[in-house]
Amino acid sequence: MTRARRWLSGFGKRETWAAYLFLLPWIFGFLALTAGPMIISLYLSFTNYGLEQIAGIEPTKRVGLEHYHELANDDKITLALKNTFVYTLMMVPGTMIVALALAMVLMRISKALGDVFRTVFYLPQITPPVAVGVLILTLFNGSFGLVNRGLEFIGIQGPFWTTDPSWIKPALAIMSIWAVGGTMVIYLAALAGVPKHLYEAAEVDGASAWRRFKDVTLPMISPALFFTFIVLTIAGLQTFTEAYTAFFGPGTGGAENPDAALFYAIYLFREAFVNFHMGYAAAMSWLLFAIIMVITLFQVFVSRRFVFYQGQR
Amino acid sequence: MLRRWKQAAFLAALAALVATVFGGATGIASARTEDRTASKHFRIMGFGPGDEIANVRADLATEALARADADVQNPSGGFDDQKFLAALASRDVPDIVYMDRKKIGSYAARGVLVPLNSCIKNQKLKMSQYRKVSVASVTYKGRIYGIPEFTNPITIIAVNSVLRDAGVKPADLNTRNWAKLRTAAKKMYKSSDGKVTRIGFDPKLPEFFPLWAKSLGLNLLSKNGLRAFLNHPKAIQALTYTNQLIKDQGGFDRFNAFKQSWDFFGNKNQVDQAQVGAWPQESWYYAVLARTTKAELTAVPFRNKAGGQITYLQGSAWAIPKGSKLQGLACTWARVMTAPGSWYKAVKVRFDNQRRLGRPFTGTFTANRTADVKIFEDLYQSFGSKAYDNAVRLLVNVQKYGFEQPASPAGAEYYQAMQDAINRMLSGKQTPRAALNQAQREAQTAINKAKK
């Protein structure tokens, strides 16, 4: 029996109907709010869709690959992609390392204290990104911000985080790492699931703390690491709110629109909603989709070597 | 067991159906309710309830529309391009919009706004009462697309205590003499431990770069908005000079970090705390200072190289989007909102409020010359503060020397190119010449693409 026939034959059972009925709202939402707009966006990336077309003043005309050629020749695309990649390369490993370190510390302390600190570490996660964007300029102010005052206290002359192009992305990455709570909670759950007998066996064999971490902990929590690696990478490549609020929002007066903070999503937003180049912005969004897809596929490919699922042979 | 599954599935589907139908019905019902309560429903986007200057005029305009059997929906919130695009896409456009004059050219060039020439004729609107430069900023290819409101003229605000401390006179802040201004800025500048503790003179880059270029006699954009002059030698000269001012005062990093620490709208603002000597600022900030500080200040005009006063005017305008169903009423609304009588009544309320609170009235500066004359000749009285009296007198007078950026089909891209160039230069990535050359290429390319 072919796969299709096997699938169709499932509809003879009442449970199948029930399952699909429960799935229907999500399917509808996915089609109407995700797949549908994606297909329309793909179509628009091959057209001259802009303000005149939105207002119905002029018809939408196909322009073929014109926008994609423009992408290849747009210097700002290169700049925006570079900024986005650099930021992601800082934010992803930083978040994973800090989250894992915090999770491991929380595993070792008492439950009562652990509950308190788990809450404390999670609180930044629920801070609205717009508020974080506003905070960046205050906390990271080169002369008077708390971060540099703290560094001065330990004898370090802090940089001008919000005006020096070399330090803008690190400042944004640090603020992102500050909201490490969600990732930490995932690692906590993964660490709690590592069988204790593996550590005992490793200790009996004379493994040091580092060997136990490298050969027991990391492989056993590798699925969680892999999941967060993918999710954080996608989030990093799509970063928008904090950087936009801090450097491109209406209150900045233009004085804080540095090229160093021009992330891909911000440039896309600007092209679509400020310059009204909707077709071009649609092409940009598909370029980003392709980049994220390639990176994710690469991550999945690499995961076969490094990710261990319990129960696998 | 199976029956329970069936029941559960059925109930879930039924709940989803009811929610969808109910939600849709509520929407239809509320739309029907709106239709039933008013024969005409006039919708505004981008204005919203505000202070007494806004609300008094809006009440007058609402009364005028009520006589035409229309009620007014004026939701809060400023003009948002995304909301407007969504309204255009859904063909549910508001009847009138209130937007920055700098945006009018971009929307007009794309046919999204209605030219107001017939509206002006039907309403018998005397355009001569409005400031020529403000009308020019909303005129594209000979057609007027907006009725301008405020002008927000710019003067230099000098903090007397800082000037005294540094041995600088207000006359030293004459932008006609750049060398003298630079010396005054250095004198007033203070730093400690490598941090700026007082800015001498803030040139306000990139926002006021057009003003600096104008002081050399250069318009950065042609009158028809189709030609940019961002890399003109005078533009490079203006940018080089203003950059030098900032370099003299700690360099951009320290300079801007210090500015970001100011409590700009609060009681411990940079004037109150003597954190700045002088800087060019729009007129509305005098009202903030009158409310927050007793610090003495002096208003100094911005001057060109010939010694004449100049100022940079900016503000919003009323525009009618294509697809507006009540264009006649929109014209009436714009006329009443900007009429001299409406301005007078609104400013009278503001004036009385300020008197009651014991604060100086720092003026309201409109794009309607007739209104301004009426306000300041018939209404304005001294509150006993010589500084604010002088400031108001200067602001009233300087408007006639004002300029505005013309309407351009790629206004947003032009401004962005200029800002990006200046920010690249400020961060040390490019020289003024290289930055403005790049800006010129980007701006002119965008204008050429957008013009039809």
Number of helical segments with 4 or more residues of chain B: 18
Structural class of chain B: alpha/beta
Helix percent band of chain B: 40-55%
CATH top level assignment of the largest domain in chain A: Mainly Alpha
> Which architecture of the largest domain in chain B per CATH?
3-Layer(aba) Sandwich
- Dominant shape of chain A: globular
Return the CATH topology of the largest domain in chain A: MetI-like fold
CATH topology of the largest domain in chain B, what is it called?
D-Maltodextrin-Binding Protein, domain 2
Shape by Cα distribution of chain B: globular
Secondary-structure element pattern of chain A, one letter each: HHHHHHHHHHHHHHHH
Please report which band the strand proportion of chain A falls in: under 5%, 5-15%, 15-25%, 25-35%, 35-45% or over 45%. under 5%
> What is the H level of CATH, i.e. the homologous superfamily of the largest domain in chain B?
Periplasmic binding protein-like II
Number of domains of chain A: 2
Domain unit count of chain B: 2
- What is the spatial order of strands in the main beta sheet of chain B? 2-1-3-14-6
Rg for CA atoms of chain A:
24 Å
The fraction of residues in strands of chain B falls at 5-15%
Supply the CATH class of the largest domain in chain B: Alpha Beta
Please name the two chains that share the biggest interface, counting residues whose Cβ lies under 8 Å from a Cβ on the partner chain: A-B, 41 and 49 residues
Average pLDDT rating of chain A: 91
